[in-house]
Design a protein that fits this description.
Blueprint (H helix, E strand, L loop, with lengths): L6 E9 L6 E6 L8 E2 L2 E3 L6 H13 L3 E13 L4 E11 L12 E7 L1 H5 L7 H7 L6
Parallel strand pairs: 1-6
Antiparallel strand pairs: 1-4, 2-3, 2-7, 5-6
């Protein structure tokens, strides 16, 4: 049976720095408020997914990114809706810049594999990243 809930198109940015660390934000709003995830959010009307991933990453981390390719898709249950997220592999335009939390993020950091284990991640994030082979080093 098809899900009757409306779908909300979203994007996520999978970004590594020169050391192989992964860019993460701590979400300040639902879904998964207080948990860690990749930067991202809703695609605005008339906006391409690539433009949305650039905008959302800049809003949440202050970093400019360049979308490279789509990694995959995930579905996240929301309050009366389903968020359909297209996750993009992206590169940082200015690698010397550090992330700064903004907009819908309480914090923004690059983490290595050891640092990742200490964070409380949003549901499904680690499974998706692992399946796509893009976990941090």
């Amino acid at each position: 049976m098809d899900d009757p809930r409306p779908e909300v198109a979203c994007v996520g940015a999978v970004v590594h720095d020169e050391r192989g660390r992964l860019l993460l934000i701590r979400r300040s709003h639902a879904p998964s408020a207080g948990l860690w995830s990749v930067p991202g959010g809703r695609v605005e009307p008339g906006e391409s997914e690539a433009d949305a991933v650039v905008r959302e990453t800049a809003e949440e981390t202050g970093l400019a990114v360049r979308p490279v390719r789509v990694l995959g898709h995930v579905r996240i249950d929301g309050d009366g809706v389903v968020f359909t997220v297209t996750d993009w592999l992206c590169t940082v335009v200015e690698p010397e810049r550090q992330p700064v939390a903004g907009d819908d993020a309480d914090d923004a950091v690059f983490v290595d594999a050891a640092g990742l284990t200490a964070l409380e991640m949003a549901p499904g994030v680690l499974t998706a990243l692992s399946g796509w082979g893009v976990l941090p080093r």
